[in-house]
Amino acid sequence: MYRLLDKVNTPADIRNFSLEDLKELCAEIRDYMIGCCATNPGHLGSSLGAVELIVGLHYVYNTPDDNIVFDVGHQAYAHKILTGRKELFRKNRKKDGISGFTKRTESEYDVFGAGHSSTSISAALGLAKASEFRRDGKKTVALIGDGALSGGLAFEGLNNAGSSKTDILVIINDNNISIDKNIGAIHEHLLRLTTDPTYNKIKKHVWDKIGDGTIRKMMQKFVVNTKSNIVSASGGDLFEAMGFRYFGPIDGNDIGQVTDTLQRLKDMKGPRILHTITTKGKGYPPAEEDQTIWHAPGMFDPVTGKRIAPTHHGASRYQDVFGEVLLELARKDSRIVGVTPAMASGCGMNLLAKEIPERFFDVGIAEEHAVTFSAGLAAGGMKPFCNIYSSFSQRAYDQIIHDVALQKLGVVLCFDRSGLVGEDGATHHGNFDIAAYRSIPDTIIAVPKDETELKDMMYTASLTGTGPFIIRYPRGYGEGRAWRDEEFKVIRVGSSELLMNGSNVAVLCAGPLANRALEAAQKCRGEHSWNPYIYNIRYIKPIDTEMLDNVLEKCSSIITVEDGCLAGGLYGAVTEYAASKKKSIRISGIGIPDRFIGQGTQSELREECGLDKTHIYQVIIEEMKEVLKKDQKVLESKN
């Protein structure tokens, strides 16, 4: 039971709260958030740090009429709790529950969806400009933080917004730099002076009286230079140069300072920057002490902070396989380097960073730069392994084509989190990588079925020398193979692997789903004495045409199985090849359907999309029955 939070159903309910009430409300929101995330994991650290900012925004601004645009959405949990989704938050990120990010179809308070980073400023500028056209008086705020400001799109938005003179407030949620106490009072004094309504009214009056002549320009230059010198310690001169008025930094975890500052800035015109300093994980000691782990800690005991490790039966996570293998390859070859756009621990590259830091590059949330930087390394004779989450790679599509493929540069692109990632939902599923990159000339797309194949494909890629060499693999744990004990082997590019010999029906599988298809086929053999061919495709591009020719010659039916979109994926590759050979053959595809898939556990979503063993078994049975019917008709016609 919460004294204040239980009374809050919409932001309007908090606008008559006293300052002491707001402080208590922030504490209650944190407690509720920790309790929910302990049993239903989510992105906790960022949201704990942004509570006062979000409470302050909803207190000062007239939401949902005014617009608050979040970046990424990792920090938006307090926003969801305040905007009518308090009870629904208990099913945050669950199947058929609410999204872990802001989502336009979910609430009128979610004015713009945010799953990937660095979009808030551009989107907020668009909303603010639309408000200008409508003359509806809406205020627009972009809240950007948690590293998102390092993304190129954020700077594109800043550049355009600063020159547009549009009424927009950008709040930087800076949780990496602490306030310097020695100059804190000076910053607070400057903030109060420059946000004071009387000061700004007099300032406008003076400028109007002076006019647009030489004297005004000289005085403006003097004021700007003086102000920049004062605030340059906190980086304000950069934003002033881009056309923004810069304010701050302020303590973003002080609700009194936040609300007071927002009230002063609310009715100002033009582009403004408010720099706030917050603590990631604020209010929960374990999250404050280890901010990386507690960004998304999984399940934990809310009292002790002890994390509850999931059971995995001794299997390794694919990201750990990648990290260990990359380090081993780097030890053997001094030309191998690692590049990641701010996902070092998430992809496993932190191992390389620790042992060989000079050959590790975290370029920030900048996928485009990561790819072109890797291309430059390759052009200079290095062997870069660039690891990007599959859905994030979409932002670097142009660079993969122009800077890597067109120039035939040996960049190894490892797409972690390919396929259905689980609770992060539609913005993070890596469904489209096969279809997106299969059409690019001179591109290799490898799909390992287990940990050992990932290891060997990384080794093969390190020897190939041309690119892009894409290796895609899923989020989570592998098959439990003893991959560390295996010697490195080259897997010939364009070769497939026959997992089960059979007749009539061929099942062509991409990635770990080959294991589920093999299990389904073994059940089919045990229960019906039917043996389909099971092929581990291994390379979607170049595809094994010798194997396909053999299948087209011997089989009446083909089933493709892939953890990616059917349109343009393995299913597309096989049907295109069959058509090119003028073969009339029944081809069925099992994969992700032509729609966006929501959140849920990976197993729930695979069942929804028919990527589980049971569904694969049913499709094989149906295809076998169709083949038997066809054979029966042929036999009857002969008789």
Structure description:
- By secondary structure, this protein is of the alpha/beta class.
- The protein is built from 24 helices and 17 strands.
- The protein is globular and about 95 Å long.
- Thiamine diphosphate binds at residues 74, 115-117, 147-148, 175, 284, 367.
Helix content: 40-55%
Percentage of residues in DSSP E strands: 15-25%
Contiguous low-pLDDT stretches (5 residues minimum) are: 177-187, 222-234
Average predicted confidence as pLDDT:
90
In angstroms, what is the radius of gyration?
A: 28 Å
Assign an overall shape. globular
Assembly level? single chain
N- to C-terminal separation?
80 Å
Strand order in the largest sheet? 7-6-8-9-11-10-15
The main pleated sheet reads as: 7 strands, mixed
Would you report the number of β strands?
A: 17
Number of helices: 24
Secondary structure class reads alpha/beta
